[in-house]
Design goal:
By secondary structure, this protein is an alpha/beta fold. The chain is built from twelve helices and ten strands. Strand 7, helix 5 and strand 8 form a beta-alpha-beta unit. Belongs to the pyrroline-5-carboxylate reductase family.
Length: 283
């Protein structure tokens, strides 16, 4: 990435440094991304904070050894990423509320915590964006949904999009769609891993060793995904190209379609959506 096309972001503070925050951090530290004013991070554990502090461009401290760490981290930060566990969010917001500077953009990656909750606990001079990244962020292949708050501007939204584009693709959706998005892209990697698990077991039952089965199945999923990414046609057309009339694949596809995969995925994602709503209601 050339200097002319470098992504430039203002100073950022991460509150909470679990796997998702670390994935986003890795995106910010790649060549071609410039964070003016640097990156700060807080974490409960001193050992984890020390690991983060060793990264170039990151200043980290632990809340277990510095009770004011979160408040100090947000002073002067233009973007504050709230990445603690959802149950910890309200107390954290109360803790930092009066330390945030007017115009700060607070970005939530806390699943199930609404924009309304954030806005009710933060000053009116602070904008909120809610996000839903997924785990492929770790390898720079995330799909992240972002939703504007009632106080956020187009510039705030663009800033959040630029932040998450460092780890993959971004969809801007209304907050009312964010839970539904989570049932597709958020939970989606688990669906893919389940399919890989089951097809691998099938290969073993066909007489292949576990190593051979893993090579076949994982290579096939990777290859099919890369073929789709490189193609200018949709997956239905790619499937048709593999499915010769009256051939072996056609027989297998017929069995899969008899299982009503469309209905199965509808029911599975509906169940996930119902649970997301329960969690949002505190159940």
């Amino acid at each position: 990435m050339s200097a002319e096309t470098a992504v430039r972001l203002p100073s950022i503070a991460f509150l909470g440094a679990g796997s998702m925050a670390r994935a986003i951090l890795s995106g910010l530290l790649q060549p071609g991304v410039v964070v003016d004013g640097g990156i700060r991070a807080t974490n409960r554990s001193a050992a984890n904070a020390a690991e983060l502090d060793a990264l170039d461009g990151v200043t980290a401290c632990a809340t277990e050894s510095d009770a004011a760490a979160n408040r100090r981290a947000v002073v002067g930060a233009k973007i504050v990423v709230v990445a603690v566990k959802p149950a910890m969010v309200p107390d954290l917001l109360r803790e930092i509320a009066d330390a945030l500077e007017p115009g700060t953009l607070v970005v939530s990656v806390a699943a199930g915590v609404t924009v309304a909750t954030f806005e009710s606990l933060l000053p009116s001079s602070v904008a909120v964006i809610r996000s839903m990244p997924n785990t492929p962020a770790v390898v720079g292949r995330a799909v992240t949904g972002v939703s504007a708050g009632t106080r956020s501007s187009d510039a705030d939204l663009a800033l959040a999009v630029a932040l998450f584009e460092t780890v993959g693709d971004v969809l801007v959706v209304p907050e009312s769609q964010l839970d539904a998005l989570s049932t597709i892209s958020g939970s989606g990697p688990a669906y893919v891993f389940l399919l890989i698990e089951e097809l691998t077991r099938t290969a073993v039952r066909k007489g292949f060793t576990p190593e051979q089965a893993a090579l076949m199945v994982q290579g096939t999923f990777r290859g099919a995904s890369e073929l789709l990414a490189a193609s200018d046609v949709d997956p239905a057309e790619l499937r048709r190209r593999v499915t010769s009339p009256k051939g072996t694949t056609e027989r297998a596809i017929a069995v899969l379609q008899e299982a009503d995969l469309a209905g199965l995925f509808d029911r599975a994602t509906d169940a996930a959506l119902a649970r997301a709503r329960e969690l949002a209601a505190g159940a």
